[in-house]
User: Which sequence fits this backbone?
C-alpha cells in the first residue's frame, strides 16, 4: 500500500516537473519585432555571408511587457521547403522537441538598448532555406515570447545559405583515392620485387 502511494506520488511529481517545461510555440505571443538585413531570396555563402539582426518589443504590447525578459536567443530556422522529408528538422509545437531552429546567431542577456548583432554565417550551416526567429526567456529559462522575420505561414522573407562543404567533400574523396592508390602500388611493387627475387633464385 505504502509502495503504491509512493509510486503514485512519484508519477505525479514527475508529471508536474515535466509540465514546467511543456511550453508550446502556439502559446507564445509574437511580442518581438525582428529586423534583419538579409533580403528575401538572397543567397548567403556559409563562412562569408553576414546578417545584421535587431529586435525590440512591439509597441502594441503594454509597457513593461519585457520586464520578465532575462535572455534573448536569435536563431536560423529551417523554412518548410527545407524540412520536407527531414525528420531531424521537424517543427513540433512542444518547444523542447521542436527542431525548426538549430543554428544560434546570438544568445545574450535581454536589454532594450543592446539589441542588435552582426553575424557571419558559420561554416557548418548546411545548404537550405531559412528564416530568423528570436525567443525571449524568463529567469526560469522558459520561453515567454518570440519574434521572427517571416509571416506565420513562413512563406515570406525566406533566404538561403549555400554551404562550402561540397568543395571539402570532393577534396576528401581525391585524397582518399590518392592514398588508396599509393598503398596499392606499394604492395604491387613489393610483390613484383618478391617475384623477381624468386625467379632469379
Ligand atoms: C506589431 O504587432 C502588430 C499586431 O500583432 C502587427 O500588426 C504589427 O505589424 C507589428 N509591428 C511590426 C513593426 O512588426
Assistant:
Amino acid at each position: 500500500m505504502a509502495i503504491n502511494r509512493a509510486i503514485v506520488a512519484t508519477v505525479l511529481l514527475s508529471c508536474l516537473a515535466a509540465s514546467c517545461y511543456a511550453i508550446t510555440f502556439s502559446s507564445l505571443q509574437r511580442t518581438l519585432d525582428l529586423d534583419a538585413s538579409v533580403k528575401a531570396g538572397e543567397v548567403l555563402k556559409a563562412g562569408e555571408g553576414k546578417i545584421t539582426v535587431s529586435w525590440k518589443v512591439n509597441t502594441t504590447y503594454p509597457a513593461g511587457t519585457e520586464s520578465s525578459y532575462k535572455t534573448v536567443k536569435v536563431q536560423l530556422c529551417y523554412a518548410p521547403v527545407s524540412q520536407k522529408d527531414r525528420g531531424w528538422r521537424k517543427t513540433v509545437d512542444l518547444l523542447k522537441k521542436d527542431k525548426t531552429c538549430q543554428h544560434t546567431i546570438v544568445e545574450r542577456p535581454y536589454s532594450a538598448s543592446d539589441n542588435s548583432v552582426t553575424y557571419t554565417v558559420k561554416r557548418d550551416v548546411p545548404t537550405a532555406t531559412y528564416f530568423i526567429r528570436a525567443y525571449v526567456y524568463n529567469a526560469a529559462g522558459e520561453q515567454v515570447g518570440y519574434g521572427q522575420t517571416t509571416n506565420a505561414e513562413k512563406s515570406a522573407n525566406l533566404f538561403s545559405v549555400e554551404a562550402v562543404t561540397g568543395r571539402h567533400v570532393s577534396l576528401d574523396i581525391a585524397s582518399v583515392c590518392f592514398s588508396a592508390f599509393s598503398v596499392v602500388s606499394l604492395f604491387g611493387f613489393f610483390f613484383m620485387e618478391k617475384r623477381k627475387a624468386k625467379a632469379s633464385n
In short: DSSP finds two helices and nine strands in the chain. Residues 33, 58, 60 surround 2-acetamido-2-deoxy-beta-D-glucopyranose (CB under 6 Å). The first strand starts at residue 32 and ends at 36. The helical segments are 2-20, 165-200.
